[in-house]
Structures are given as structure tokens and as C-alpha cells.
């Protein structure tokens, strides 16, 4: 009996695209997979176990080796340096990180406040720009911060631009493009090289069209 491969899947918006991609790669995922509230789902005929985690936590499960592989946004990978291998750009959940704020806002502070879910990315970005800022960490609804005076600017994900637009904010600087990545635990990469190589190969074919 071969070792089971544990895959950490992010709940939320990446899940749908990732599940679709796995199906296109020929993995037989049961239909109830998409609606279930279960956090561990076994697919015995594929020798795969899926665990469902918050997108920001996927990398933690993989780093600790309780999941062999996982799917995580590049934003999460950039925010914290982790001991995992990033083996494939899945080219799904495309978006980008940007600086945004109210139009024509005057910068009066010596160190303007920047609200973000990504304090490390934001700090490095402004350090590279040679700009002194004060970072305020938030967990969501980042666009609210400049509207209510918590921060002058934000660093956040932009996809369609709808959230910025509907809140009267404008994009000021493009930081970097983001897509989801396949990440692998370094020990699993050695111990379970066969199923991992197969997964990478099958997913690569889907990406390549
Ligand atoms: N608007 C978006 N469009 C496309 N991809 C996005 C968007 N927002 C975030 N992403 C990508 O999807 C990943 C997961 O985002 P999602 O919003 O599902 O989770 P989260 O915000 O971390 O968690 P939650 O909203 O459940 O607290 C992000 O890490 C990023 O890579
Ligand atoms: O450009 P858009 O297509 O409008 O997408 C961008 C929005 O999507 C994400 O928020 P999310 O929906 O994850 O909400 P939250 O960060 O407030 O939890 C991101 O933080 C932006 O707010």
C-alpha cells in the first residue's frame, strides 16, 4: 500500500479554482467535496487526503509536515519566510498587491500610516522606496481604513478593482503580481517524491493547456 499524499487546500476563493484544476488534471474528486463542511476529506482511490484550511494557514500545515503539499497565494509566501518549497505557479486566483488611497490626499505626516493585512510586504516595500511609514495591521476590510481616518494609505490585494472603486479609492502604486502556488514540505519531497512528481506533472499539463 502506497503512502497517502496529504494536500492542504485553502478554503474560500482559491478552493473552487484549485478543485477545478485538480479535476482537469484527472483526479477523481467526489462531487460532495465542494459543499462539504468536513475539514478532512479522503479520496481513497486516488490515495489522497485533503485537509481544508484558512488560506493564510495552508503554509503552516505544510511547513510542519502534517500536509505534504498545499496551495497558497504568493502574497502569503511573500509575507512570511517559510521552510517550504514553492514548486509550481498554478496561475490561478490572479490578482496583485498595490498601494491605494483617497484621490488627492495630502501627505502631511512624517511617517504616514499604512493599513494592511501584509505588514512585512508593506514594510519592505516602503523601505525600498526610502519612505518612512507606520504600519497598521488589519485582518480584512482594509479599504475601510483610509475612509475612516485610521490610515492615509493601504497595501492590499486588487483583482477587478471593484472594492477600490466602490469605496472611492484609487490605486497609487503597483507592488507585484500574485497567483497561487503549489508548495511542498521539504521532507515529503524526498519521502513521497513519486506521488508529488506525478501531481506536479499532471498539474503542469493543465497549466500548459
Ligand atoms: N479579490 C481577489 N481576487 C483574486 N484572488 C484573491 C483576491 N483576494 C485574495 N486573493 C488570493 O486568494 C487568497 C485567499 O484569499 P481569500 O480572500 O479566500 O482568503 P483570506 O482573505 O485570507 O481569508 P478570509 O477572507 O477567509 O479571512 C489570497 O491569499 C490571494 O492570493
Ligand atoms: O479588486 P477586487 O476584485 O474588488 O478584490 C479586492 C478585494 O478582495 C480582497 O478582499 P476579500 O474579499 O478577501 O475581503 P477581506 O480582505 O475584507 O476579507 C482584497 O483584500 C480586496 O479587498
Automatic annotation (TrEMBL):
Entry GO terms, CC: cytoplasm
The answer to whether the entry has keyword Glycosyltransferase is yes
The UniProt entry's coiled-coil ranges are none
Q: Where in the cell is it found?
A: Cytoplasm
Report the catalytic activity.
1-(5-phospho-beta-D-ribosyl)-ATP + diphosphate = 5-phospho-alpha-D-ribose 1-diphosphate + ATP
EC numbers for this chain: 2.4.2.17
Give one GO biological process term. Answer: L-histidine biosynthetic process
Give the matching InterPro entries. ATP_PRibTrfase_cat, ATP_PRibTrfase_CS, ATP_PRibTrfase_HisG, ATP_PRibTrfase_HisG_short
Q: How does it assemble?
A: Heteromultimer composed of HisG and HisZ subunits.
Q: Domain comment, in the record's words?
A: Lacks the C-terminal regulatory region which is replaced by HisZ.
Q: Which family does it belong to?
A: Belongs to the ATP phosphoribosyltransferase family. Short subfamily.
Protein purpose: Catalyzes the condensation of ATP and 5-phosphoribose 1-diphosphate to form N'-(5'-phosphoribosyl)-ATP (PR-ATP). Has a crucial role in the pathway because the rate of histidine biosynthesis seems to be controlled primarily by regulation of HisG enzymatic activity.
Query: What protein does this entry describe?
Result: ATP phosphoribosyltransferase
Q: What is the species of this protein?
A: Metabacillus litoralis
Amino acid at each position: 500500500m502506497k503512502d497517502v499524499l496529504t494536500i492542504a487546500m485553502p478554503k474560500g476563493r482559491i478552493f473552487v479554482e484549485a478543485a477545478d484544476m485538480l479535476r482537469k488534471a484527472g483526479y477523481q474528486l467526489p462531487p460532495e467535496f465542494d459543499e462539504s463542511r468536513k475539514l478532512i476529506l479522503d479520496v481513497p482511490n486516488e490515495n489522497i487526503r485533503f485537509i481544508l484550511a484558512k488560506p493564510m494557514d495552508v503554509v503552516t500545515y505544510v511547513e510542519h509536515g502534517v500536509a505534504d503539499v498545499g496551495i497558497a497565494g504568493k502574497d502569503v509566501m511573500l509575507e512570511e519566510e517559510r521552510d517550504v518549497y514553492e514548486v509550481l505557479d498554478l496561475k490561478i486566483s490572479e490578482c496583485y498587491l498595490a498601494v491605494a488611497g483617497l484621490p488627492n490626499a495630502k501627505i502631511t505626516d512624517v511617517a504616514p500610516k499604512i493599513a494592511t493585512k501584509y505588514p512585512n510586504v508593506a514594510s519592505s516595500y516602503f523601505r525600498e522606496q526610502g519612505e518612512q511609514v507606520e504600519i497598521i495591521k488589519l485582518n480584512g476590510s482594509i479599504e475601510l481604513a483610509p475612509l475612516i481616518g485610521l490610515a492615509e494609505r493601504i497595501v492590499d490585494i486588487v483583482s477587478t478593482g471593484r472594492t477600490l472603486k466602490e469605496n472611492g479609492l484609487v490605486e497609487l502604486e503597483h507592488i507585484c503580481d500574485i497567483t497561487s502556488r503549489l508548495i511542498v514540505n521539504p521532507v515529503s519531497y524526498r519521502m513521497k517524491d513519486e506521488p508529488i512528481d506525478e501531481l506536479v506533472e499532471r498539474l503542469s499539463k493543465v497549466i500548459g493547456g
